[in-house]
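Run: sequence + C6P -> complex structure.
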Amino acid sequence: MSNNSHGLNVAAIREDFPILHQTVNGKALVYLDSAATSQKPDVVIQALNEYYHKYNANIHRGVYSLAEEATARYEGARKKIQKFINAKTHREVIYTRNATESINLVAYSWGRANLHEGDEIVSTLLEHHANIVPWQLLAKEKNAKLKFIGVDDHGVLRPEDIETMITDKTKIVAATMVSNVAGTITPIKQIIDRAHAVGAITVIDAAQAVPHMPVDAQALDADFLAFSGHKMLAPFVGILYGKRALLEKMEPFMGGGDMIREVHLEYSKWNELPWKFEAGTPAIAESIGLGVAVDYLTELGMENVRAHECQITAYALDKIGSVEGVQILGPLDPDQRGGVVAFSIPEAHPHDVAQIFDSEGICVRGGHHCAMPLHEYYGIAATTRASFYVYSVPEEIDKLVETLKKVKQIFKAS
Ligand code: C6P
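>> structure
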């Protein structure tokens, strides 16, 4: 971007991402699918290399130098993540496989112990399946009721629903901070405060938030926050943040090595936090890589990351919105949304659209993006989605729009 108002040097950032400098199908790669998974900078790739080249060993077990180094870096990364989201202690930061596993952990462990027949779980229509299905399973098992806060035509949660649906019967409020389809930034603090006012706990899906904007777990006062490393420049590993007082009382999610203090044939005693929830050998290199990604993002400054995304999203909304007949989902104001723009064109199915984009070297996602209920609500089976990150530039949006116009011509003619 030539006129940066966001403090990111995007041209320099792009140099850090080797994958971006290639051609696909004979065209320069345009990667517009960062909401699905982000690309990784060289420093993260090098951290993985270094682990496997120099100190590949299991953690918490070995008494030799390599194992000690692996353990120190794995635990060091946890402390970086703690600082990044402003958790009170590293004991509140649990490594998981992904955001999905983080949410399932809470549903299984906290939900099974604390939810009873007739209790209610409140979620929203904006949710990814990862924040719907675990609650469906739990509600079915416990004979509890699952309710959904609705949205208006612009994908904004209905304020009156927040007030009326979260009641004394509510035990869990499971809501997203940023929709992966409509892009909506939800009034999460208001939702959390409302939940706490009725004595419910909050499970916040921050998968599209933590990578893209400053998130302060203590300021939010969220009970649980789930997110994925692979959407924030890191490899495939997830995080569950949970308040210590709640985690202390919870039973483990999975049993096995590392999560125990003592095992006898008749009973076992659990390890202390956070390891009580980390059974078996974890994704060691990936977690270390997440620490490096957090360093990279911290260096950029999360305020700057957010400002850049606002700018590029505003540009995308304007350009994509100017193509005749295109319907964009979500709020019109870029300040109210994250860096995703999902749209539909009446002429073509999103899978066909995505294939034509691919022939031009452009990566976008076509489908329901694991948010079928939201698509159903809008009466659209699927959408095409472009999503952005720190390395995205307006020229990529220009190419997208150029190709979109071609797509419309192809389908009109056929
Ligand atoms: N959304 C997308 O293309 P996992 O798969 O566990 O890392 O993340 C799940 C998840 C949870 N919540 C939100 C808001 C998400 O966007 C995602 C992942 C990807 O939109 C893959 S479906």
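>> summary
The chain is about 40% helix and 15% strand. Residues 4-31+301-413 form a domain with the Aspartate Aminotransferase, domain 1 fold (CATH 3.90.1150.10).
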